[in-house]
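Input record (one chain):
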Amino acid sequence: MLFTEMLPAHITVADLIHKEPDHALAALETAAHTTHATLASAQLGDAAHGVLTSQTISALIALRSPQSWDRYLTRSARLPDSEHCSVVNAVTNGVHQILPSLRSLAPAPPVHYGHLQPDHILVPPGPDQSPVLFSPRLQRGSAGVDLARLISQTVLSLITTPGTPAVDQALTTLDTLLSTRVSNLWADQQAWVRTVLHLWLTDSLITLVNTVTAPPRLPLPALAQGILQHHHRIRALLNWLRTLTTVNNPRTAWTAMTSVVAELTRA
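The corresponding structure, as predicted from the sequence alone:
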């Protein structure tokens, strides 16, 4: 059963971040913390264990061979034919890089929101009101899935909207969210950041493929339209992520990626 409610005065974080970054990023941070705390004690049936991880791995396996999905890229006609090879290479290289790491991630008991992203977080008009999240996709998966998706989708929004003044501020907010989820143990910090980097690459890969292979008559959301317009930036992002997931010190890789993202927004 679907319940809906009109919220005419609300605006998404994705829209507001370019106009009122302070307000938008405060709502994003609140939504991330609240969702994490709320879902920490939530329960799903045993059948839901590992569903997200297994589905993601299956999706990536299907992308290993360009021939398995190149026909959808051609049929979609979202990109010029001359760009197909570059997109295919960026995706298949990323898939081969990330699959072994994903297979080694153990499914975690906590439930994940699934669609924690800027265009699914509504910012209320009043400063004392809480943000509203919509379109959940509750499921189990590896720790860090929600945060990695939030990072991935926020970064994609930033680099497909050139000239936004909120880049440094947004990256600082994401860094804070990443840091607050780790323990004081160095080994745990390293493992956590590495996992989030891998899941970030995974989410961005799948988002790019879903966009460029979307049926030609299907209306696309604003982020997907931006990805098509600035797909060269997305390819550069994927290549950098793929390279930096191999760095021995994940924290160094994370710091480097924030610099890459800032540069891509100016490219």
